[in-house]
Amino acid sequence: MGDEQTRAKNKRELWKQEAERALRGKTLETLHKVTYEGIRIKPIYDEADLKDTKINHSLKTKLDRSWKISQAINCEYAEDIQEKIKNSKVRGQNSFFLNSFQQIRNKEELQAAFKHLNWKKDSIFFDVGNDLGMLPLFLHMREELNQQKDLQGTIGFDPYNDILTNGEDSISLSTKLDFLADTIKWMNEHDCKARCILIKGNVYSEAGANAQQELVYTFSHALEVINELLNRQVPWQQIVNRLTFSFGIGSNFFMEIAKFRAAHNIWTSLMHALGEGNTSPKLYQHAVTSTYNKTIFDVHVNLLRTTTESFSAISGGVDELTILPFDSVLEQQTELGERIARNTHFILQEESLLSKINDPAAGSYYIESLTNELSERGWEKLKEMEDEGGFLQQLIKGNVQKDINKIAKQRVHDLDYRKNSVIGTNTFANPADQVSHDTIHNQIIYQHKENTLHHVFSFHEALQFVSKEGTAPQVKSHTLDNSFKAQPVKTTRLVEHFEKLRIMALQAKREGQNITVGVVTIGDLKDYKPRLDYISGILFSGGLDVEIVSVEETTKMKNLCCIILCGNNNSYQSIDLTIIDRLKADNQKLHMYITGNGQEEIVNELHLDGMITSNMNVYEFLKNIQNILGVSGN
Q1: Element (H, E) at 325
Q2: Element (H, E) at 8
Q3: pLDDT tens for residues 509-554?
Q4: Which end of the chain is more exposed for a tag (fewer CB within 10 A), N or C?
Q5: Are 521 and 530 in contact (CB under 8 A)?
């Protein structure tokens, strides 16, 4: 062992001794915690953790570390899209995210919508979804204007998206893959450099998947598409040149940095395994901030969430970034939300200087260790999936869904028991927040009128129709007899069940219903204050009003259905039993609780309904209290 290694070891041992002395006899292992990925996080990392780590240098090869500012264009009609693009360009946006084309059906509308785009400088990110007829319409128009060679960015779709999100296809998977193969061939023949294969890995993170699961299922998903296209005689190089990976961004800051960096390692391993490692392009990553962890209450906290998510994605090396507005989960989104989301890019570029540094996380003992572990775990799991039949077979069997649901349920469990805190929702709820059920954003689903659209069955038929009629046809399958069905990967938001409780309580209050819970304080302020803050915070997170009185003022509460006794363990010894008896005598429907662990004896003696403890299921408690108060909807 060299002198440097000896010094490092001695330094680590010294730190360990000091840490355990501060822990008063506990071992250092008590500070370890396990992530949702099953990775054990240590309290300190040093050079020893990099001894067997293969540090990824692929991000260092990029001379330009800026990323495409790919903000969403949330409009439907051509005139509105035109105006939004014009205003966004003036404010510095250089890529334009659009995923709804239902109100753009012909060349004139396309020309109007994208009038202000400079096809040589601006980039696009168009997810056409099941509106496959838009692809040949758009490409044919660019060809007519001799602009197909200038096209930059992504215009395409994920052939597996319908099966993932709906459990079945409205257009058969084989038709989609045939259509995608023909699109790639057309692009190659016409020297169009845009990408058209979209792998939407963010579907998994929006369902509650952990970072490892998102990596594994995204690349397994991509490998399935690659193999299908190879079977359709699409050359390998043309396939990988057309791939865009879209990942979600979770709230675990360092894990997300490691995830995006690990994605490069897994991609490299996959290319080498397929014998194409030396000629394949680097992974192209698009990232979008998550809606899974966003809240409708205390909605401005979402600003902090989107900012840290964006920071982690950029530090992880993404090529293109979409930051959703802080109010994107609300029905009525504002220009302020869009402006702040767009300006967040510039703050991170110009003030945080993230566009000036190649791989800012490189060399961090902690992040390099996480990156390495995610890479190795992800690669091994990916190989297991292939050995077990591949992505589609695992999806049909329900194994993918079960694996993600297990983590999603654990996240909900930790939220319900307050092991994890969501500011403004299950902790530090602001009782002044007033929202209604209509506040929650429900995406509008537009449907084509079947009798107004011409049906085609392939890319070439669609292209012929477009060149003749100048409008987008509807792509259909000859038959859906061989289509696949599976349980959908259910996307949701983590806090929706808490928000429902609060909305129901607020609605009851607006209708004049009494939703007040009484809290009787016992002893001096210093005795009951910590528990009073705890129980008040819980009740506020359920949208309930709190009335606080001392023991001497309990007569004010005789009309309440629910009362909570609040003090410390010593003060409970002085409870006047006659007061409790009198309260129950005055109100036969009264429900009473006591705060604090270990109060079983008092609960039994006073015939109380239960204890409010630090390790209880807060959600179920609130749901029960609302039932007692007669709040409808539970």
Answers
A1: none
A2: helix 3-22
A3: 999 999 999 999 999 999 899 999 999 999 999 999 999 999 888 8
A4: N
A5: no
Is the pTM higher than 0.85? The answer reads yes
| Strand blocks (E) in 58-168 | 68-72, 95-98, 123-127, 153-157
Find tokens 């927040």 and name the residue: 433
Task: Identify any residues that bridge with 13 across adjacent strands, giving them in sequence order.
Answer: none
User: Residue 352 in 3-state DSSP?
Assistant: coil
Q: What region, left, alpha or beta, does residue 523 occupy, with left being phi > 0 and alpha being psi -120 to 50 degrees? A: left
DSSP E strands in 159-291: the ranges are: 195-200, 243-249, 285-289
Mean pLDDT for 455-483 is: 90
Identify the residue whose tokens are 């490892």.
Answer: 212
Task: Indicate whether 242 pLDDT > 80.
Answer: yes
Q: Which of 173, 178, 174, 185 is CA-nearest to residue 237?
A: 185
**203's tokens:** 């579907």
521 CB contacts (<8 Å, ≥6 apart)? 528, 532, 548, 549, 550, 551, 566, 567
At position 479, the amino acid (one-letter code) is: T
Q: CATH says 204-240+252-420 is which class?
A: alpha beta
Supply the angle between the helices 525-541 and 618-629 in degrees, to the nearest 10.
Answer: 80
What fold does the segment set 497-629 form as a domain? Answer: Rossmann fold (3.40.50)
Are 68 and 83 in contact, with CB atoms under 8 Å apart? Answer: no
Residue pointed to by tokens 């109380």: 608
- Collapsing DSSP to helix, strand or coil, 386 comes out as helix
Beta strand ranges found along 201-318 (DSSP E)? 243-249, 285-289
Return the biggest CA–CA distance within the chain: 90
Strands (E), 56-152: 68-72, 95-98, 123-127
Per-residue pLDDT tens over the stretch 143-163: 999 999 999 999 999 999 999
Give the integer Cα–Cα distance in Å for 242 and 182: 13
- Mind giving me the DSSP string for 260-323? HHHHHHHHHHHHHHTT-TTTPPPPPEEEEE-STT--STTTTHHHHHHHHHHHHHHHTT-SEEE-
Whether 204-240+252-420 and 497-629 share one fold: the answer is no
pLDDT digits (tens, 9 = 90+) for 399-415: 999 999 999 999 999 99
Owner of token pair 């500011």: 423
| CA pair distance 241, 279, nearest whole angstrom | 11
**Dihedral of the alpha carbons of 123, 128, 134, 140, in degrees to the nearest 10:** 30
Calculate the alpha carbon distances from 399 to 162, 384, 388, 405, 470 in Å.
18, 12, 11, 10, 44
Cα 413 to Cα 435: distance, rounded to the nearest angstrom: 25
Q: Region 76-93: what's the mean pLDDT? A: 96
Annotated domain spans of the chain:
3-50, 66-200+454-478, 204-240+252-420, 497-629
Whole-angstrom CA distances from 313 to 67, 285, 351 are 10, 10, 17
